[in-house]
Design brief:
Mean pLDDT: 81
InterPro entries: Globin, Globin-like_OT, Globin-like_sf, Globin/Proto
Order of helices and strands: HHHHHH
Largest sheet: none
Number of helices: 6
GO molecular function: heme binding; metal ion binding; oxidoreductase activity; oxygen binding; oxygen carrier activity
Distance between the termini: 26 Å
Number of strands: 0
CATH topology: Globin-like
Keywords: Cytoplasm, Heme, Iron, Metal-binding, Mitochondrion, Oxidoreductase, Oxygen transport, Transport
Radius of gyration: 15 Å
Family: Belongs to the globin family.
Bound molecules: protoporphyrin IX containing FE
Helix content: 55-70%
Subcellular location: Cytoplasm, Cytosol; Mitochondrion matrix
CATH architecture: Orthogonal Bundle
């Protein structure tokens, strides 16, 4: 797991805190962007394969449910910045479930947006890459193929 500096931890905590109750709406923006970049990801959500990237689809209960789950995991990571390694096994299991539904490592790459200052951006990138590296820890063993 990447080592985060105390400064990065502070920036991450403050910016996450500043979202207040707007975490899920921010998550929706993030996933909307992700689906625009890679519409094939929509098909991985088996309940909604014919919907598309229209706003009414992306705010459907199923997508909202997933965005809420994602935000809870990020919230857990922000709460454990001092001991991120304690989440590793949970994240690795979560990652295996994603590999099984057909998510690819590169699907996890997404921009945090230009409004972030460089150090804040770097802090989030480091934390997010720790989360993704724990989620994909065991994928190489499966050759990145879909597993069940
Ligand atoms: C790359 C984009 C992603 C795709 C396409 C994706 C897709 C999915 C799908 C299809 C499911 C199963 C259906 C569901 O529960 O809604 C799922 C479950 C879940 N995802 Fe994602 N996901 C992505 C990224 C993430 C990220 C970054 C996180 C957290 C940091 C995350 C957290 C979760 C959680 C907590 C579940 C529920 C697992 C369970 O049922 O125990 N996902 N995801």
């Amino acid at each position: 797991m990447e080592k985060l500096s105390e400064k990065e931890k502070g920036l991450i905590r403050d910016s996450w805190e500043s979202l207040g109750k707007n975490k899920v709406p921010h998550g929706i923006v993030m996933f909307t962007r992700l689906f625009e970049l890679d519409p094939d990801l929509l098909a991985l959500f088996s309940y909604n394969t014919n919907c598309g990237v229209a706003p009414e689809c992306l705010s459907s209960p199923e997508f909202l449910d997933h965005v809420t789950k994602v935000m809870l995991v990020i919230d857990a990571a922000v709460s454990h910045l001092d001991d991120l390694h304690t989440l590793e096994d949970f994240l690795s299991n979560l990652g295996r479930q994603h590999q099984a539904v057909g998510v690819k490592t590169q699907s996890f790459a997404c921009s945090l947006g230009p409004a972030y200052t460089a150090p804040l951006r770097q802090g989030w990138l480091n934390m997010y890459s720790s989360v993704v590296s724990a989620m994909t820890r065991d994928w190489a063993k499966n050759g990145e193929h879909k597993t069940n």
